[in-house]
Amino acid sequence: MIPKYIVFNINMPDKNGKALPVGQGNNLDELLSAYHGKAYQIMKVKTLSDREEW
C-alpha cells in the first residue's frame, strides 16, 4: 500500500544532492509530532492519475 505522506530530511542529501526520505505514514499529525523542525519536509504522495500533465 502506498503511504499518504513521505518525510524527507533536507539536511541529508544523497550522492545526487536530493533529500533523503526518512519516514512515511498515513497520519499527518503523528508525522508532524515525530518529524518537526526545519530539517524535515513532509510531502503528500500523489498517484499518477492525480498528477498534472508534465
What features would you describe in this structure?
With 54 residues, this protein is mainly β. It has one domain (5-44). Helix content is 13%, strand content 39%. It is built from 1 helix and 3 strands, in the order ββαβ. The chain has one helix at residues 28-34; strands at residues 5-13, 19-25, 40-44. Strand 1 and strand 2 form a beta hairpin.
Averaged pLDDT: 91
Largest sheet: 3 strands, antiparallel
Instruction: Tell me the number of strands.
Output: 3
Query: How would you classify the helix and strand content by structural class?
Result: mainly beta
Summarize the structure.
By secondary structure, the protein is mainly beta.
Keywords:
13% helix, 3-stranded antiparallel β-sheet, mainly beta, 39% strand
List the helices and strands and how they pair.
Layout: E1 5-13, E2 19-25, H1 28-34, E3 40-44
Antiparallel strand pairs: 1-2, 1-3
